[in-house]
Amino acid sequence: MLNLRRLHHIAIICNDYQRSKKFYTEVMGFEVLQEVYREERDSYKLDLSFHGEYLIELFSFPNTPERPSYPEARGLRHLCFAVDNIEEAKQQLNDEGVETGEIMIDPHTNKRFVFFEDPDQLPLELYEL
What we know:
This protein is about 15% helix and about 35% strand. The model has no long low-confidence stretch (mean pLDDT about 90). The protein has helices spanning about 15-25, 85-95, and strands spanning about 10-15, 30-40, 45-50, 55-60, 80-85, 105, 110-115, 125-129. The two termini are about 30 Å apart. About 15% of the residues are buried. The chain has about 130 residues and is of the alpha/beta class. The longest helix is centred in the first third of the chain and has 11 residues, at about 15-25. Strand 2 and strand 3 (about 45-50) form a beta hairpin.
């Protein structure tokens, strides 16, 4: 068995780099650790952290193919972020122009959650602690 320690990062390829950078930094509240433009690949790589923990690599590449991103599609289902108050967080997203689903209740934990999407329709979830 591998001696895994923790999740290191999540890599996301976006369509519109500036739009996604704004979403993850200004709407979601991630901090920029490092931003690099790789001329040979015509690609940006943005390292993002949350409360000092490196979590997301945001990439841009020219002419990327589309991928189905519905929560029930094969592959990555969604990324989930914990919040203290689901109504407050949902309202903050809505105030930023981000559409959200209805708040639902997990039948196994009785915790509340809501789905929404990033600028490339990557499914995201907020889960109330």
